[in-house]
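Bench notes, afternoon.
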Amino acid sequence: MNNLDNLVLGDMSSVREKSIHYLSDNYFWPVSDDDFSEFYKYMYIEYIKLVKSENNANINNIATVEFSFISNLIQILHYNYVREYSIKNGLNLVTGKDSEQYINPNWDNIKHYYSNLFFPHGKVVRMIRRFARNIIFNKNLPFVKLINGLIFGSDSVSIGSNDKTKKEFIRSKNKFYDHIDWPSLVIVDINPSDEIIAEYVKIFTTSIIDPYLKKISNHNSLFVKNVDFDRVKDVWLTRVFEAYLLYFSIKSSAKSSELLVTEMSKPIHKIITVAYQDSGCKVYGFHHGNDSAIHINKLLFSISISHCYNLVVPTNGIKDRYKKHYSNTYRISNMSTRFISVNSKEMYKIYSNNASISNVSDCDTVMIMGYPCNSGRYIGHRGLFFYQQVDLEFRLISLLKSKNKRIIYKAHPDRLEEVESVFNGIVDEIITEPFERVWNKADLLIFTYTSTTTFGFALTTNLPIVLLDSEEDMRDADDVELIDSRIIRVPSRIGADTRIYFENDKLIKAIAQSNYDIAYDYVKDIYR
């Protein structure tokens, strides 16, 4: 570490204060990708082992929901490592509001997460929303069937956003769906007995919480040094109690025969999903975005999606890949997920239209896809952390500017605050509009990772794409061969210092071509 100030910039708050130049000149993050990967895999796998050994449906269901607690704890322990390392080595860890939830977690909020769940609209507004949405989202139905549904209701229910895949699924069913907000499924006057809940909490504590926290606390690393695991246990016990209260209330009042759920990984949507499935209801979860499993992340699938027995995806090509890679993931549930395609042609039509437009021959304007620079470190990936990505983006921009390229930085729409002051004056333009509306402002696109829905859409455009790829071994070999006819992959690697390295000459060569031979075999295959 070549840093006279002995500073560790701990989040984007500190980067904004000290500048991206300072971070790049004094690059240092104490937790390597290998150490972080080993630790989070240990935390998840040990948890799954304990839950599976219990083999109790009601325990399994709440344990599935409480992956959210494990995920949050991993991020807290990651920052605990950084803090303990800094103390041990006489470094000054500088942080601000961006990492506050991990540096100084509000344990009371975490403890009462389920009882504090809040929906932004009251009962009257929800009734109005329900009526309006039931008209708008069922407008494909014949008038008589629509009116009948509005008057008499339906036992086919939908919660969450009405995304494109869900819309196509609903159209294919030709039936009335009641579009409601999740509080309508939580009947407050149905309360299971305290004895029932107490018994399950007792089993959960003795079989899972106690042995799990003992295993984690004995991990010989800075991740767990000086962590108050008695407090962690107290927090988790209350969460489990409140989760069971919700779960049994929802399960007892479940009357629908069919339930559609988007935003599947939200804890409240998870509770509703497992409770309704357990009551015999057929639940369909919906695939998010344009993900075609180009990055294979079995662990993320296991903790975020595998609780749902039916996953609806947009196309047959995506369905085939999900079946291939995620049918046999190691999971809590003994049930496997069934993958269903709505056979959407939307993305294929977009590709057909874009591919027919001639692309430019000179790449003067380059669009860099910005990373959402929050303080969470992604699991199941390499290099997906704000510190690594913002440094990589800065070095990319500097290199491209030295070649007189005009740079557009495509910021994540919800993360402009984190990066705007960092890259102002460094890039030519920062934009937050949806990528679908602004991609044609550029001559060439650069991605530093593929785990974004933007990448799937970008493949349908007529623009050349350069990918700095450090995750080739996490991809399907057949897909890599196909996609290499569509994009230019520049290999990158992650050093022991966590920095992402690539060869400047290879990147310059990739963007300096006068003609790009773009083939769409992969696009045709996944969106067919």
